[in-house]
Design goal:
Shape: globular
Pfam families: AAA_lid_14, HTH_8, Response_reg, Sigma54_activat
GO molecular function: ATP binding; sequence-specific DNA binding
Number of helices: 21
Keywords: ATP-binding, Nucleotide-binding, Phosphoprotein, Transcription, Transcription regulation
CATH architecture of the largest domain: 3-Layer(aba) Sandwich
Radius of gyration: 24 Å
Protein name: Sigma-54-dependent Fis family transcriptional regulator
Structural class: alpha/beta
CATH topology of the largest domain: Rossmann fold
Length: about 475
C-alpha cells in the first residue's frame, strides 16, 4: 500500500484529502506546516508520495521539495496550489516534482496522477529501474465504442483494421472529445506491438520549457532542480507506440528535436552525451489541419510529411446521428457497472433531447452527462427532466421537459417579480456563476473549432486552468 504525506496549512483540506485517499486504498499522514512535514518525513522516511501545498506560512512548496528530496531523492512529490501560474509549474517540475495540480482539487485528477505509471516504479522508496523503463501497460482490447452500425462507423472500423498491422505513422484528426486517444489505443491493440507499451502524452498541456524533458527525459544535474534522472516518454514507449495528442501545440524548437528523433531513431536525454536508440511507432492527433498549420508557418512542413503516412478523420458526434443512441447505451452500461445500478434505458423525451443537442464536447461530454444522470437516478429509466440544466436551458422548445431546473431557465424568469421565497428556492449564486462560465467556455470552443490553446488565449487563462474547467464541466 502506498503511504502519502499531506502537507498543507489548511487543516480542512488535509482532513478531506486524507479521507478521500484512504477510501481509495492509500495510507496517509498529515502535517500543517513545512517544518512539521519535513520533520515527519525525516523521522519516518517510509512515505512513497508527498502532496504539498505551494504556499505555506514558513516555506513554499519548492523549498519543501528540495529538502525532502535531499532526504530521499526517490520519493514522488506533488505540488497543489490555488495559484494557476505556469512559472510555478515549470519551477516545480524542474525541481523534481512529479506533477502540479491547481485548486479546487478534482478527485479524479488526483487519482489519475497517483496512478501514473511512474508512481508505480518503486515501492517504499526503492526505485526499480526496469519498471521505470517499462512505461504503461499494454493497451486494453479495442473499445466497443467505435463499433457502430452506420456506414460511417463501418468505414472507420475498416480503416483501423487496414492501418493497424502496419508500422505507418498516423495523424488522427477530430474535435476535442471525439475519442482520438481511444482510437489510437485501438490501432495499437490491433498491431504487432500490442504486447509492448502504449504511452500517451498531451502536448497541449506542455510549456516550451517542459516539453523536451517530458519527451526525451533528463539526467540528474542537467539543470537547476534536476535532482534525479527522468525517463522521457519516448524511452518509456520503446518497442511500442507513442501517442502525441495536440501535436500542433509543440514549439518550433521542440518540433526540430522531434524531427531528428524520427529520422535517426536516436535521442539524448537533456544534459546527457549518450545516445539512446529507440524503436517506436508514432501516432499523433490534432484538432486543426496540420497542412494548414505548416502553410501558416506554425508547424514544420518536414515534420508534417513524416507524420502524414496515413490520416484518420474522426467525425464529431453531431454527425453520427445513426450511432448516437448506440453510444448512449454504451455509456449507460458503463455507468451501471460503475455505480452498481440497473438503469434500463432512456425515455422518449430524453432521446429527443439527445438527438436535438449538438454535443460540442462530443463523446466525452455525452459520457459525463450520462454518468451524472445515472448517479442522480432513483428509478430504472433516465428521463428528459434529468438532463443537466446548462444544456436544456439553451435548447429552444424543450425547456418544458426540465422540472425544477431553477435559475437554469433564467431567460424565462423576471428576477424582479420573484418573491424572497422563490428567490431562495430558485436562485443560487454559485451554481449560476458556474453555468455562465460553462456557457462562455463552450461558446469560445465552438468559435475556435475546439482548439484549446486558442480558447485559453481568448479567455486569458493558462491551458491547465482550461483543462481543469473542461473536466469540471464535463466538456
Amino acid at each position: 500500500m502506498k503511504k502519502i504525506l499531506i502537507i498543507d496549512d489548511d487543516i480542512q483540506i488535509c482532513k478531506l484529502l486524507a479521507g478521500f485517499l484512504e477510501k481509495n486504498g492509500f495510507a496517509t499522514d498529515v502535517a500543517y506546516s513545512a517544518a512539521a512535514g519535513i520533520k515527519k518525513f525525516r523521522e519516518q522516511n517510509d512515505f512513497n508520495i508527498v502532496i504539498c501545498d505551494f504556499k505555506l506560512g514558513d516555506k513554499n512548496g519548492c523549498d519543501v521539495l528540495q529538502e525532502i528530496k535531499s532526504i530521499n531523492e526517490q520519493v514522488h512529490f506533488i505540488i497543489i496550489t490555488g495559484y494557476s501560474d505556469t512559472k510555478i509549474a515549470v519551477q516545480a517540475i524542474k525541481n523534481g516534482a512529479l506533477d502540479y495540480i491547481t485548486k479546487p482539487l478534482i478527485p479524479d485528477e488526483i487519482i489519475a496522477v497517483l496512478n501514473q505509471p511512474n508512481t508505480h516504479a518503486y515501492s517504499n522508496g526503492t526505485r526499480e529501474k526496469k519498471e521505470a523503463n517499462a512505461g504503461t501497460a499494454a493497451a486494453p482490447p479495442p473499445e466497443e465504442i467505435f463499433k457502430g452500425n452506420s456506414p460511417l462507423a463501418l468505414e472507420l472500423k475498416r480503416q483501423i483494421e487496414l492501418i493497424a498491422p502496419t508500422n505507418y505513422s498516423v495523424i488522427l484528426y477530430g474535435e476535442s472529445g471525439t475519442g482520438k486517444e481511444v482510437m489510437a489505443r485501438n490501432i495499437h491493440a490491433l498491431s504487432k506491438r500490442k504486447d509492448a507499451p502504449f504511452v500517451a502524452l498531451d502536448c497541449g498541456t506542455l510549456s516550451k520549457e517542459l516539453a523536451a524533458s517530458e519527451l526525451f527525459g533528463h539526467i540528474k544535474g542537467s539543470f537547476t532542480g534536476a535532482v534525479t534522472d527522468k525517463v522521457g516518454h519516448f524511452e518509456m514507449a520503446n518497442g511500442g507506440t507513442i501517442f502525441l495528442d495536440e501535436i500542433g501545440n509543440l514549439s518550433y524548437d521542440v518540433q526540430a528535436s522531434l524531427l531528428r528523433v524520427i529520422q535517426e531513431r536516436k535521442f539524448k536525454r537533456i544534459g546527457d552525451t549518450k545516445e539512446i536508440s529507440v524503436d517506436v511507432r508514432i501516432l499523433v492527433a490534432s484538432n486543426e489541419n496540420l497542412k494548414d498549420a505548416y502553410q501558416r508557418g506554425t508547424f514544420r512542413e518536414d515534420l508534417y510529411h513524416r507524420f502524414n503516412e496515413f490520416t484518420l478523420d474522426i467525425p464529431p458526434l453531431r454527425k453520427r446521428q445513426d450511432d448516437l443512441m448506440h453510444f448512449a447505451r454504451f455509456f449507460l452500461a458503463h455507468a451501471n457497472a460503475e455505480l452498481g445500478k440497473n438503469i434500463k434505458g432512456f425515455d422518449d423525451e430524453l432521446v429527443q433531447i439527445f438527438m436535438q443537442y449538438n454535443w460540442p464536447g462530443n463523446l466525452r461530454e455525452m459520457k459525463n452527462v450520462i454518468r451524472r444522470m445515472a448517479l442522480l437516478c432513483d428509478g430504472d429509466i433516465l428521463t428528459g427532466s434529468m438532463m443537466p440544466a446548462e444544456i436544456t436551458a439553451h435548447m429552444p422548445g424543450i425547456q418544458h421537459l426540465v422540472q425544477g431546473a431553477g435559475i437554469a431557465n433564467a431567460k424565462m424568469i423576471n428576477i424582479e417579480e420573484l418573491s424572497d421565497r422563490s428567490l431562495e428556492e430558485n436562485f443560487e449564486l454559485k451554481s449560476t456563476a458556474a453555468r455562465i462560465e460553462y456557457n462562455i467556455i463552450k461558446s469560445i470552443l465552438q468559435r475556435v473549432n475546439n482548439n484549446k490553446a486558442k480558447a485559453a488565449r481568448l479567455l486569458k487563462i493558462d491551458r491547465k486552468t482550461l483543462y481543469n474547467k473542461l473536466k469540471e464541466f464535463g466538456i
